[in-house]
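Morning. Coffee machine broken again, so started the prediction first thing and wrote up yesterday's gels while waiting. Chain of 186 residues, entered below exactly as on the submission form.
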Amino acid sequence: MRVVMSERDVVGVIESDPAAMSVLRAAAGLGLPDWWIGAGFVRNRVWDAISDQPVLPERDVDVAYFDPQKPDPGEDTRAEARAMAILPGVPWEIRNQARMHVRNGDEPYTSTLDAISRWPETATCIAVTLRGDSVHLVACHGIGDLVGMVVRPSPTFGNSVGRATVRARVEAKGWLTRWPGLRLEF
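Came back before lunch.
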């Protein structure tokens, strides 16, 4: 039986996880502009909750922010060092999305959310941030695929090369082993 979740339920999954909240508080303490934590940080927790599985340790914590005034990759390295000082042991990956379009071969991004909307799968194009004590969620392509446990390429990855990239990610990350209820829709 499929669990039906709303955006509020997704936020509840994050808020009820003390480790997730510690990560969000640490990220908030960095003072990065327009910051969000996305990808597996949200997706995996939701899929684990739906599948009634325990949350596994983070493989990485993708902190995306947008600061066109500081495009130097060294800024990310310094932010990661500050994050490690606040919350050691977390595999931080902090990236300024103001320059990531170059690596990804896209037009310049206009914001963090513009960049997140171009991540590989629709269920990965989701993120949370902390404002005060409140968790805020953004789902660039809606939450339907996330809560429906559907793996579908985002519009940016909707071509044959993109679909192959998504297939390779599913296999390399072992998603079907961890969540056998996933539906692949390429």
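The first strand starts at residue 36 and ends at 38. Going to sketch it on the whiteboard this afternoon.
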